[in-house]
Design brief:
Length: 275
Amino acid sequence: MMLLATLDGNLHDPNSPLIRVDDLGVLRGEGVFETLLVVSGQVRDLSEHLARLQVSAHLSDMTTPPIAAWHRGIDAVLTAWREPAEMVLRLTATRGSETGAQPTCFVTGTQVPEKIRQQREGISVLTLDRGHSGAAAATLPWLLTGVKSISYAVNMSALRYARAHGADDALFVGTDGHVLEGATAAVVVARGDTLITPPEDGILPSITVRRLFHHAALDGWTTEESPLTRTDLIAADGVWLVSSVRLLAPVTSIDSGKIRISSDHDRLLGLLRQN
């Protein structure tokens, strides 16, 4: 089941055309998006995702509608959703037609795919060289490394490569040996009673990591941003890929080598699920 709404609050048949063939989102992958989890009708971290969408649009030199317009589309999907399961809410804005000045914006709602639910139980990763360091990418804004862009061809290629080589997901590492991020997720490790995530240089800032760190700090954990290497991950007490819908996926192997699953996994997942 998929629901589709435009920002005027109207629902549309998801099987009917909505995007023009000359839309720059189709022709050149120009656009931004956000993916959110809806639990029991409540959208998690909505204001944070809307704010990041605006930042992504700004960094991409795009003009997007005001937040109130997005709320109309979101409310239309939430009202029409009748399934008991969790929902994936996706907000998309493309640059629009080559000949027009208005972006193409819409909201979709679907069930969480079963394969995503399964990855919450454990995931194997393959490390891949990203071709630059995070620090270098931070000085090259045209790479859009801090933008949630719909141009995901490289990320999807990395996933296909990882799966062709026996892993579930890809984990990007910089040319300086520092861990960056997963193909579609952030990275968190546990070292004793400390949770660590890589610095935000050259990667997408993670809203879900911020949520986890907030609740973990209240629960007595120390949290920090610090460079991590592949060796650090192997030696850690726990490693996770963290994202809005997948939540907290424990990494069970890196480059075919088994690693430990943290005994605190359920505790941390419980913290992440808090409102």
